[in-house]
Amino acid sequence: MLEAISSTAISAGQAASRATETQAVAPSAPSAIQSTDDLGFESVMKQVTTDAIGTLKAGEAASISAMQGKESTRKVVEALMSAEQAMQTAVAVRDKVVQAYQEVVRMSI
């Protein structure tokens, strides 16, 4: 499951790079957004996907610990609910990135 998310993260990163390239071509792109690398779209996407992957790994680790009898049921449920929410967020962001990419591709030049 994590490999699929990692590949999604890579795809989202590629889409983000293409979106960044598209912004660089746009003549009236705001300079304040591109002034720092830390606040760029690509870095935000990397941070979001990294956080989602970390949450999913924590959910899996909690599940494994519960099977070994080391974790309470409450903590496992909380970790799995967080993992589910992170997964739903990642899928929603992926869908929006793909939708935006398709709109850019359909633009007439």
Automatic annotation (TrEMBL):
Could you tell me which Pfam families the record lists for this protein?
FliE (PF02049)
- GO cellular component annotations of the record: bacterial-type flagellum basal body
Where in this chain does the entry annotate a coiled-coil region? none
Q: Name one GO molecular function term.
A: cytoskeletal motor activity
The compartments listed are: Bacterial flagellum basal body
The main location class comes to other
Keyword annotations from UniProtKB, A to Z: Bacterial flagellum, Cell projection, Cilium, Flagellum
Q: Which GO terms describe its biological process?
A: bacterial-type flagellum-dependent cell motility
Name the segments for region: Disordered.
1-36
* InterPro entries hit by this protein: FliE
Q: Where is the composition biased (Polar residues)?
A: 1-11, 17-36
Question: What is the similarity comment for this entry?
Answer: Belongs to the FliE family.
- What HAMAP family does this protein map onto? FliE (MF_00724)
Protein's name according to its UniProt entry: Flagellar hook-basal body complex protein FliE
| Organism field | Bradyrhizobium arachidis
**Its gene?**
fliE
